[in-house]
Specification:
With 858 residues, the protein is of the alpha/beta class. It folds into 4 domains: 77 residues, no CATH class; 261 residues, Rossmann fold (3-Layer(aba) Sandwich); 232 residues, Glycogen Phosphorylase B (Rossmann fold, 3-Layer(aba) Sandwich); 109 residues, Immunoglobulins (Immunoglobulin-like, Sandwich), CATH 2.60.40.10. 39% of the residues lie in helices and 17% in strands.
């Protein structure tokens, strides 16, 4: 019978009948703390192991669908009640503990940081994520809870989430979008004291869109999600939160408006006033405009620049995109359509508003970039790996055109993973036994991983083998199901039971199938690959998984090539593709394979985190030196593909690097794995596993990452924001006025002369004094500029290499509006040296001397 909704339908709610002795189960199911607690996971799994898999590892759905007699049996079981008591005590200990942040810092604000992201990958049972960006955001929240950082998050509640992937008989990716069942998910709709849903609105060109607010708890961290699927909205507006990253320019802007503008309004409606705002990618950049609008509404005497100054001080923008093509850029007329009624509230006209998002603010034809908007409205900007920081400084250098690239004010904090989310239960048990209580009770004690060497080789290998056996069993079961759904023959389905060998060297490759990730690079020489795979005494097998963006036919073709190769009868047992990649698939693979393969085209991988998840499980990485692996690789923890080269000829690059993959497999990886002096245990391989865990896990984890965000950005932004806000924003006003004055008169500041005092010949260890005469117009306060010596060794092109910057001291004035400055260069090394004089803004309270993009060289 087809679904039918009769007129005058009356709704009612049925809740599970959880016995009183198990009442804590409902509280535990509603908080995603259980995601990273192995004992809590087992508590729910014990209720019904088969059903646990059927409900997608979702405790709330498990409780809602479990037969009453199952709950009654658990309530009557003393062992189960004891297990529940133990888990609940651990949960309360986590929720009530002060945490590292409260112990290390005296900031007591309960709403210190608001973290905005378009997606959050918390668990497969809440599919509001598409890939690494969302999973990183989810791990960020989990670590914030673990270290006790007072952080909250804002996102969108997508009713269909990201698509589910399935393959057609010809191996072409197809997509389906099932609706989420919110009643069976760990989300709670927020209501005001009268019981009405909390509701906010955002004005659009043709309508006003309304959004309700839902809450997800991740340990101590609340995540607020906006939902526009309301009867009061038009069909188009209801679709704003239907799917992650909707197609069409208008829909994308609407999503960003609801996230950024609506998100700020939602926090205000909830009575929450964060001190610092973190924009995780540029999707939420409109939040900074909304904060400025609110500040202007509350302080009508302010100018936009004065309000902007305060907003910038407390905004951080993290960029994840290493190529311009990945940035959302909108046509000026499109932005004008959406904001023509908004920019007057910012005291701006059309051109000054559009200039905020243009790389060249004077080019009226240039598009409006979300990343540029975020950079221009945030004092803090960072990339997500050391290499990505370099790439970002190069990519956005044109915003600071005369500033040396290495001084462009974009810093980097390397990404990480939330280790306890991704760690296999077997390794978790080993860590608890050999690393001690600090493993879980002191999440910022990274020295704890030195204890990995205390784990006996045999125990570590057995734990790894159990994870591998579990992965193989899961892969076979999953393949059977997917082959049946694809219409495969009976024989093909039955052959799935022989896929993969738990004893063979197993290599995993799982990620988003963007073309730059080169998922099919391993197939460049299929005959050579077959020989490696089909070795009689040293077989190798591959497990692939991943999705392509629905509009990316290039990515879909890569998947088709891989699946077509899988169908070769000779190798299909050793080469498999798992459909519908999600977080559950990731966990299985990073806990069960031996080697993690990654083949991005350098330098297009901003960071990458799947290899970090693998390394925490003792899986060895085999990757191009890009993203995090560029700084994580040493010969003791894995293998590189290439030596960090960058190519102009992509075909040549693919040839060279595919050859390197085969060579390394044949000559290093395969022999090391199968070298077993006792016939059972690969001792040298296990030593590398220990190196990988000990060296990489303390660095590439989100507890370290979030601590760095706290100390490098959040706390400085909090203190700077409070400083500028004192005395009714007096310092913010003064700084904005100083910058405006500098912009107006900067062209009148001149370097009249620059000369060394001496004969021009110096020995190592001596110093050279340089003097310069600077003309400064009367309307500019000399205290608002800095005169600097820029010096260092010269290369063959007369460019200064590894420059040193030293301030020059102001001396007497030789004439009206002229000032003499002196600086000293220390001669550290022999060879050809050079210097230049530059002037940069030096007004008090500047976040960076390059912030206003003003600089003068002699």
């Amino acid at each position: 019978m087809a679904d039918y909704s009769p007129p005058n339908l009356k709704e009612f709610l049925v809740t599970p009948d959880v016995p009183e002795t198990l009442r804590e189960l409902s509280e535990l199911a509603a908080n995603l703390w259980w995601v990273w607690n192995a004992d809590a996971l087992e508590l729910f799994r014990r209720l019904d192991r088969a059903r646990w898999d059927d409900v997608g590892h979702n405790p709330r759905k498990l409780l809602n669908t479990l037969p009453t007699h199952k709950l009654q049996e658990a309530a009557a079981d003393p062992g189960y009640r004891s297990h529940l008591k133990r888990v609940y005590a651990a949960f309360r200990a986590h929720m009530d503990a002060p945490g590292w942040f409260a112990t290390a810092h005296d900031e007591k604000d309960k709403n210190l940081v608001a973290y905005f992201s378009a997606e959050f990958g918390l668990h497969e049972s809440l599919p509001i994520y598409s890939g690494g960006l969302g999973v990183l955001a989810g791990d960020h929240l989990k670590s914030a809870s673990e270290i006790g950082l007072p952080l909250l998050a804002v996102g969108l509640l997508y009713r269909q989430g990201y698509f589910q992937q399935y393959l057609s008989p010809d191996a072409w990716q197809q997509e389906k979008y099932p609706d989420l069942d919110l009643f069976n998910m760990p989300v709670t709709q927020l209501r005001d004291p009268r019981g009405n849903p909390v509701r906010v609105s955002v004005d659009l060109p043709d309508s006003t869109v309304f959004a309700h607010v839902w809450r997800v708890d991740i340990g101590r961290v609340p995540l607020f999600l906006l939902d526009t699927n309301l009867p009061d909205n038009t069909a188009a507006d209801r679709d704003i939160t239907q799917r992650l990253y909707g197609t069409g320019t208008d829909l994308r802007i609407r999503q960003k408006l609801v996230l950024g503008t609506g998100g700020v309004r939602a926090l205000r409606a909830l009575g929450i006033h964060p001190q610092v705002f973190h924009m995780h990618e540029g999707h939420s950049a409109f939040l900074a405009l909304e904060r400025a609008r609110m500040l202007l509404a509350a302080n009508p005497e302010l100018t936009f620049d004065e309000a902007r100054q305060q907003v910038m001080a407390t905004c951080l923008f993290t960029t994840h995109t290493p190529v311009p093509a990945g940035i959302d850029v909108f046509a000026p007329e499109t932005i004008a359509k959406f904001f023509k009624n908004y920019w007057p509230s910012l005291k701006l006209d059309e051109e000054s508003f559009l200039a905020l998002g243009r790389q060249d603010s004077t080019d009226k034809k240039q598009g409006f970039s979300m990343a540029v908007l975020a950079i221009r409205l945030a004092d803090g900007v960072n990339g997500v790996a050391k290499l990505h920081g370099e790439v970002s400084r190069r990519m956005w250098h044109n915003l600071w055109p005369q500033v040396p690239e290495n001084e462009v004010p974009i810093r980097s904090i390397t990404n990480g993973v939330h280790v306890r989310t991704w760690l296999s239960p077997d390794l978790n048990d080993l860590f608890e036994r050999y690393l001690g209580e600090n493993w879980t009770e002191n999440p910022v004690n990274f020295n704890v991983f030195e204890g990995v060497d205390q784990i006996p080789d045999e125990e570590l290998w057995k734990a790894h083998e159990r994870g591998k056996a579990r992965m193989v069993a899961w892969a076979r079961q999953t393949l059977r199901k997917q082959l049946r759904e694809r219409g495969a023959t009976y024989e093909e389905v039955e052959r799935a039971d022989t896929a993969l060998d738990p004893e063979a060297l197993t290599i995993g490759f799982a990620r988003r199938f963007a073309t730059y990730k080169r998922g099919a690079l391993i197939l460049r020489d299929e005959e050579r690959l077959r020989k490696i795979i089909l070795s009689a005494d040293r077989p190798v097998q591959f497990v692939f998984a991943g999705k392509s963006h629905p509009a990316d036919n290039g990515g879909k073709d890569i998947i088709r090539r891989i699946v077509s190769f899988c169908r070769d009868l000779k190798i299909r047992r050793n080469f498999v593709f798992i459909e519908n990649y999600d977080m559950a698939t990731t966990r299985m693979l990073v806990q069960g394979v031996d080697v993690w393969l990654n083949t991005p085209r350098r330098p297009h991988e901003a960071s990458g985190t799947s290899g970090m998840k693998a390394s925490a499980n003792g899986v060895l990485n085999f990757s191009v030196l890009d993203g995090w692996w560029d700084e994580g690789y040493t010969p003791q923890v894995g293998w590189p593909i290439g030596k960090g080269e960058e190519y102009s000829d992509e075909n040549h690059q693919d040839m060279v690097e595919s050859h390197a993959i085969y060579e390394t497999l044949e000559n290093e990886i395969v022999p090391l794995f199968y070298n077993r002096p006792d016939g059972k245990t690969p001792i040298d391989w296990i030593h590398r596993m220990k190196n990988s865990i000990r060296q990489l896990t303390p660095v590439f984890n989100t507890n370290r990452m979030v601590r760095e965000y706290s100390e490098m950005f959040y706390l400085p932004a909090l203190r700077r924001g409070r400083l500028l806000a004192e005395d009714n924003l007096a310092r913010a006003k003064k700084l904005a006025q100083s910058k405006a004055r500098l912009r107006t008169h900067w062209s009148d500041i001149k370097i009249l002369s620059a000369r060394p005092i001496g004969n021009g010949h110096y020995r190592v260890g001596e110093t050279m004094t340089v003097e310069t005469i600077v003309s400064i117009p009367e309307l500019v306060d000399p205290r608002d500029i800095d005169v600097q010596l820029f010096s260092g060794r010269l290369d063959t092109s007369s460019r200064i290499v590894e420059p040193r910057v030293v301030p020059m001291a102001k001396r007497e004035s030789p004439a009206p509006n002229q000032y003499r400055y002196e600086g000293v260069i220390k001669c550290h090394a022999t060879g050809k040296q050079g210097f230049a004089i530059r002037i940069v803004p030096g007004a008090p309270d500047l976040a960076t001397p390059f912030e206003p993009t003003l600089i003068t060289w002699n």
